[in-house]
Amino acid sequence: MDESMGEVIACLLSFSEMDWQGQKAAEQLMQIMLIAFAVVAFLTGFAFGSFQMMLLVYAGGVVLTSLIIIPNWPFFNRHPLKWLDPSDADRYPKPQPTVSAKKKSTKQK
Amino acid sequence: MHSFGYRANALLTLSVTILAIMCAMASFSDNFNSPSPSASVEVLNINRLQKLSNGDDEVSLTLNISADLQSLFTWNTKQVFVFVAAEYESTKNSFNQVSLWDGIIPSREHAKFWIRTTNKYRLTDQGANLRGKDFNLTLHWHVMPKTGKMFADKIVMTGYRLPEEYR
């Protein structure tokens, strides 16, 4: 049991971080899921006349959402950035800071 | 949203905010409940009416209290606190209110009840005004919700009168 839990945690940690689009998708998915579960929880609680039912449904929704949103699932890393290797970098021109003349003059004043 | 911590923090804050909104909506939904409670209190016996050594009148009653408060309960009700108060006018105070009995109703199943009891708390006047006094018995209740606003209301029952002589 402990070994398999360790493997699961090691597997989760081995995922690389979310890319930009993955982060945006994760945030939107989180908001949609939480609001949807809140609506469902309120309606079921009201229909069954049970406040506890509302809390349980919503708590289940929050747990499910956190399982989907919080780990670095590969699903959120489909558009990774491609960085140059340091040894290749010298072969390309270095980016020059582009400063417009107007801005410079305002700064000097 | 780039790390575990930021996502956990964002999820926690949003989920708790939504929970607060849900609780506010649950409290708001109580306004759509229009209760129709009923109650009656019968004075079975005046056990004694006497003057205490400090000159104040004290009376002991046996009451038969019956009430149906089931309609007060909604899905957002934790419990209902009820008390029966004797209310009367005297020369010293324009309004006297003395609690005689109280109770906590934990659920709808217990909200239809009757109880035969002597007064749980002493009915003592500030003075000697109780002989031949007309008084009201009022059933007050406070609906305590799980979240949000507390409601309170009462049923006033009139036409009770204490005996003319000490006994």
Automatic annotation (TrEMBL), chain A:
It comes from the Eukaryota. It is a multi-pass membrane protein. GO terms for biological process: protein targeting to ER; signal peptide processing. Residues 87-109 are annotated as: Disordered. Component of the signal peptidase complex (SPC) which catalyzes the cleavage of N-terminal signal sequences from nascent proteins as they are translocated into the lumen of the endoplasmic reticulum. Dispensable for SPC enzymatic activity. Signal peptide: none annotated. The chain crosses the membrane at residues 29-48, 55-76. InterPro entries: Spc1/SPCS1. Keywords: Endoplasmic reticulum, Membrane, Transmembrane, Transmembrane helix. It holds the Pfam family SPC12. Belongs to the SPCS1 family. PANTHER family: MICROSOMAL SIGNAL PEPTIDASE 12 KDA SUBUNIT (PTHR13202), SIGNAL PEPTIDASE COMPLEX SUBUNIT 1 (PTHR13202:SF0). One of its GO terms (cellular component) is signal peptidase complex. It is found in: Endoplasmic reticulum membrane. It comes from Nepenthes gracilis. This is Signal peptidase complex subunit 1.
Automatic annotation (TrEMBL), chain B:
InterPro entries: SPC3. It is a single-pass type II membrane protein. One of its GO terms (cellular component) is signal peptidase complex. Keywords: Endoplasmic reticulum, Membrane, Signal, Signal-anchor, Transmembrane, Transmembrane helix. Residues 1-26 form the signal peptide. It comes from the Eukaryota. It is found in: Endoplasmic reticulum membrane. One of its GO terms (biological process) is signal peptide processing. The keyword Nucleus does not apply. Essential component of the signal peptidase complex (SPC) which catalyzes the cleavage of N-terminal signal sequences from nascent proteins as they are translocated into the lumen of the endoplasmic reticulum. Essential for the SPC catalytic activity, possibly by stabilizing and positioning the active center of the complex close to the lumenal surface. PANTHER family: MICROSOMAL SIGNAL PEPTIDASE 23 KD SUBUNIT SPC22/23 (PTHR12804), SIGNAL PEPTIDASE COMPLEX SUBUNIT 3 (PTHR12804:SF0). Belongs to the SPCS3 family. This is Signal peptidase complex subunit 3. It comes from Nepenthes gracilis.
